[in-house]
């Protein structure tokens, strides 16, 4: 059984980014810059933003963080985004979610110039991805794809089941896998006979946030599992399927699987860094 080690794969990607940035530094060129926007004081959001900023700095890229008060108005937030859109020194913009309840997240995300959309979630970028002519790809779905490719998991002609329908992970992942010539079935937590559908799949990607959504015996022997979810049980972090308790059974049954944590999570950050560099190249 092959462990899909997201930490190792992400490190390889980030090393490549660091080498490109080093060349830019040697040329005395303007360096790629990410603008991070955080509204409020949620501890988890603050932790995520700090992690993204540290990754930028470690790779030699620039990063500015805009920490706005919880009571920030829609108008104030949109004004900041407008300023960042117009700033020629900013290549990528990321608005940390979730936003406080009084703010319209869709309106805010759509206000970001799609050419500076570091998350790849702007409706223009999602539309371009759908046509196969992407400008920048969503971080987590692309991270899943790159993790599978780095581990030589064949996709062409394989039956992949994606459990999840969000525009953040599930739907873009299904599209990207289909574009790699996999035959894709998209399900969700309310799909009837979900286990029966997954038992026929060569590749199963789960991203619902429902702990113990599937059991190891619900997956086909020799299948590949990519568990995107970050849930909690009595043993700590777990996925929709993967946990400390199920890991031994999954290892016996599957040909490859991603752990939780250490699987898709590190890949999401790596692809964000990749997107910042790609947007910089296009911006130049």
Determine the strand fraction and express it as a percent band: 15-25%
The number of helical runs is 10
* Overall average residue pLDDT: 97
The sequence of SSEs as H and E is: EHEHEHEHHHEHEHEEEEHEH
Largest sheet: 6 strands, parallel
How are strands sequenced across the largest beta sheet?
Answer: 1-11-8-7-5-6
- Rg calculated over all Cα atoms: 19 Å
Molecular shape: globular
Distance between the termini: 44 Å
* Poorly predicted regions: none
Task: Write a structural description.
With 284 residues, the chain is an alpha/beta fold. The chain is 42% helix and 16% strand. It has a 6-stranded parallel sheet. It has a 3-stranded parallel sheet with strand order 3-2-4, with helices on both faces. The protein is globular, with a radius of gyration of 19 Å.
Summary tags:
six-stranded parallel beta sheet, three-stranded parallel beta sheet, about 15% strand, single chain, about 280 residues, globular, alpha/beta
Mind sketching the topology for me?
Layout lengths: L1 E2 L2 H21 L6 E7 L3 H16 L3 E7 L5 H13 L5 E4 L9 H7 L11 H9 L7 H12 L8 E5 L6 H10 L3 E5 L6 H5 L4 E4 L17 E4 L3 E3 L2 E3 L8 H7 L2 E2 L6 H20 L1
Helix pairs in contact: 1-10, 6-7, 6-10
């Amino acid at each position: 059984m092959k462990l899909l080690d997201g930490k190792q794969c992400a490190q390889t990607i980030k090393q490549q980014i660091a080498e490109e940035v080093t060349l830019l530094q040697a040329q005395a060129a303007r360096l790629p810059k990410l603008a991070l926007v955080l509204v409020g004081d949620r501890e988890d959001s603050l932790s995520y933003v700090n992690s993204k900023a540290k990754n930028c700095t470690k790779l030699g890229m620039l990063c500015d963080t805009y920490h706005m008060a919880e009571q920030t108005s829609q108008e104030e937030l949109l004004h900041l985004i407008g300023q960042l859109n117009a700033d020629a020194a900013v290549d990528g913009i990321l608005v940390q979610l979730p936003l406080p309840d009084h703010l319209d997240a869709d309106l805010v995300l759509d206000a970001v110039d799609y050419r500076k959309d570091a998350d790849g979630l702007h409706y223009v970028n999602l539309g371009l991805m759908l046509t196969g002519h992407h400008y920048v790809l969503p971080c987590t779905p692309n991270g899943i794809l790159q993790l599978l490719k780095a581990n030589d998991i064949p996709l062409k002609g394989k039956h992949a089941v994606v459990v999840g329908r969000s525009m953040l992970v599930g739907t873009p992942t299904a599209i990207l896998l289909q574009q790699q010539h996999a035959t894709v079935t998209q399900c969700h937590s309310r799909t009837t006979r979900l286990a029966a559908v997954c038992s026929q799949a060569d590749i199963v990607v789960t991203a619902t946030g429902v702990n113990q959504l599937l059991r190891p015996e619900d997956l086909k022997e020799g299948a590949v599992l990519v568990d995107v979810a970050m849930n909690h049980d009595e043993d700590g972090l777990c996925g929709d399927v993967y946990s400390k308790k199920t890991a031994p059974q999954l290892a016996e049954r599957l040909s490859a699987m991603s752990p939780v944590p250490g699987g898709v999570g590190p890949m999401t950050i790596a692809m964000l860094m990749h997107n910042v560099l790609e947007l910089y190249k296009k911006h130049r």
